[in-house]
Amino acid sequence: MVKLSKKQCKDEIMKVHQQVKELTGIDMNLFRAPYGDYDNTVLGTARECGYYTIQWDVDTYDWKDYTAECIINRTVTNPTLTNGSIILMNDGAKNTVEALDGIITGLQKQGYKIVPVSKLIYKKNYMVDPSGRQFER
Fold it and tell me: Which of 5, 64, 74, 103 has its CA 20 to 30 A from that of 82?
């Protein structure tokens, strides 16, 4: 999206927003830029569209078609995993579905609680560091 104009960014965001609303009746308010690639124009445009931009800090690399066991291990032993982590998983990856139960179980055994991103993020008075993690101001 960083190669698009502000108008093109807005059109992309709102086209998907409208399609999801028509299918589900839900007004989305969370945005993750494709490939995590964003700049100030993308962030500002998403905000103007009523979206909170999110990023991840734990990548499963499931898109590389690793085995389910490898995806589980990469996730539950990830050195950046901490309270508040957002884990990136891709819906079209080959072994993600198979790995999901093991990831959830592994995280819960470590004391983590799985919550929707909407319950996890700050919505006021925050900043985002280069890793994509939010911090209260």
Answer: 64
Q: Is residue 39 part of a domain?
A: yes
Vertex 122, ends 117 and 127: CA angle to 5°? 120
Per-residue tokens: 27: 């007004």
Question: Token pair for residue 137?
Answer: 């101001």
Report the C-alpha gap between 34 and 45 in whole angstroms: 14
Helical pair 96-109 and 68-76, crossing angle rounded to 10 deg: 30
User: What is the per-residue pLDDT across 59-108, written as a single tens digit (0 to 9) for each?
Assistant: 999 999 999 999 999 999 999 999 989 999 998 899 999 999 999 999 99
Q: Is 117 a member of any domain?
A: no
The reported pTM is 0.85
- Which contiguous run of DSSP H or E holds residue 30? strand 30-31
| Among candidate residues 116, 104, 117, 115, the one with its CA nearest the CA of residue 68 | 104
Q: Are residues 105 and 62 in the same domain?
A: yes
21 close to 40: Cβ distance less than 8 angstroms:
no
